[in-house]
Every structure is written in structure tokens, then in C-alpha cells.
Amino acid sequence: MSPPTSGLGSRARHDVIVKCPFHKVYPKDLPASLEYKIGCYLVADESPKLFREANVLYWAKALLGLVYDVIDRATAGASEPIPFDIPRVRFVKAGLALSYCQQDTGIKKPGSKAPLIRAGFLLKEVIDGGDADFIKYIHNMDPNPLLDPDEFGYNFALFLAFTQHVQYVKTGGLVFISDYQGMHFLLTDLQIMTHPSISKNREIFGGGNIEKAVSEFESCHICNHFCKWPGFGLEEFGARDQSSSNDTGFH
């Protein structure tokens, strides 16, 4: 298979973030101790966790693309220009890297002659910048901005809250992205929220999937100027408008 022509993996010695799941191992005689060691999972337990996290990014890209399809169609058919800026945000590029071996260890389906998975890693695009530039805009427990109106990035957080509104409506109240965080319109470490009828107590998208956030979205989400623009045709949820400022630019 030829390497990609652009983005992650398109050049040699490409800087990446390498992630793998781990668990905390506490001393047996001190179960309540704050001291612990990092323990690695067996391949059979590690691989599903890696695939789930990669699946989150895969679906998040599709859900974000859905939002921009809605925006582009609405603005193209509008009789007047949209009265605010629309940021173009994306998630970090990522991919799974699997190490194989021919030994009789790892994961292999019965009767399969394929090489065995010895280890796996999730590779992510590096976000340039310092910790001070990294912002968490929306928590997975609340569909409204974590930031106050006078804080840097607040208007951008309002836009992200609007994307949740669009995703919720267009999926029939089943799914939306949460845990928005990152810097410079490049986001990472998100979560996919699903309605209880989707997961049915299965861990489809990981432990950060708070199903209650979806079932209570209409009563908790507070619409802002993005949601209320008539061109998007969104039903208004919530009791009041959080975007108290007339400043609709992005910082």
C-alpha cells in the first residue's frame, strides 16, 4: 500500500504522539495507596480499547462534516450573508499502528493463518503550542461552554455548542460530539455521546460516553446566536441565551 500524499504518515520521521492504554497497579497490601505503577494490558484487552478510540475519531470526523454540510447548504441558499463568522475546525489526524509476529501469542481467529498482533498503538498528529494555549471548551457532562463570556475562546465555544445542536437534530436525537478541547481550531481527545437506545449498556465509544447527556440534551442545551439564526432552521432549546455579548467574532 502506498503511503498517503499528505498529512499523517506522508513523510519519513513524521513527529507523532504515540498512545497506548494502561491501568494503575496498586500495592496489594495498600489498596488505598496513592502510589501505583503503570500496568500494560494483554493484547487481547488492549486492542479493543485502541480500536474504540480510533472509532471515536472516525465517527467524529463524519459528524463534524455533517455540521459543515448543513452550514454550507444554509449559507448558499440564504438571501442575505450570514451575520457572523463560521470557523473551520478539525480534529487531529490519527491512525492505528499494529505490530505483528509469527509466534503463537497475541490475537488470531481460529483457523486463521494471518500474522498475530503483538502490540498496538494509536498515533496522533502533534498539536503545536504550549499547555497555556490548550483550552477545554465543553465538558462531556454539560452541553454548554465551560468558559465565561469574557474569557478567551468563549465565542468559539458557542460555535461548538451549536455543532452539538445540529448533530443532535440531524441524528434524530441519538448522537453528538462532546469533550471539545484543543487549540487554534485543532481539537483532540473528544468523546462521542450516544442515546441509551444506541449503546444498550455496551461500551461502543469508551467510558466518556455519558448517555444521560443525550437524553437530557433538550433541557440542558442553551441556544446561542448560531442556533437562532433563521437560515439554519433549528428548533430552539433551553431557557435563555448564553451569548450575552454582541461580539460574534472569534478570538
Automatic annotation (TrEMBL):
Name of the protein in its database record: Alpha-type protein kinase domain-containing protein
Gene3D superfamilies the UniProt entry points to: MHCK/EF2 kinase (3.20.200.10)
Domain of life: Eukaryota
Matching InterPro entries: a-kinase_dom, Kinase-like_dom_sf
Keywords from the UniProt entry: Kinase, Serine/threonine-protein kinase, Transferase
Pfam families: Alpha_kinase (PF02816)
Coiled-coil segments: none
Molecular function as annotated in GO: ATP binding; protein serine/threonine kinase activity
Keyword Membrane attributed: no
Domain Alpha-type protein kinase: 1-237
